[in-house]
Amino acid sequence: MNAAKRGRSSNALPTLKWKKVVNTTGPTPRPRHGHRAVSIKDLMIVFGGGNEGIVDELHVYNTGCFWLFLWKTS
Q1: What superkingdom does the record give (predicted)?
Q2: CA separation, residue 67 to residues 12, 18, 34, 43, 45 (Å)
């Protein structure tokens, strides 16, 4: 029986799970909320947010080599 006959969409999204990142190279960002993030190929880019006030930090994380970089903003 296919998914459509079971009452579900045939284009259902897969279930994804968070995985803790360990052994990174570079500065670790502080916990935050209110940030913006985007993933492009092997890069995850996180901008702004904060915990005790908003910051203008730009973090770039390479998921292929576990490299984390803090880009200087002005």
Answers
A1: Eukaryota
A2: 32, 18, 23, 9, 12
Check: CB of residue 57 under 8 Å from CB of residue 29: yes
Helix (H, G, I), strand (E, B) or coil at 57: coil
In the chain, count of helices (H) and strands (E)?
0, 4
60 contacts 47 by C-beta, under 8 angstroms? no
Q: What is the pLDDT of residues 20-74, one digit of tens each?
A: 877 778 777 788 889 999 999 999 999 988 888 888 889 999 989 988 888 877 6
pTM of the model: 0.62
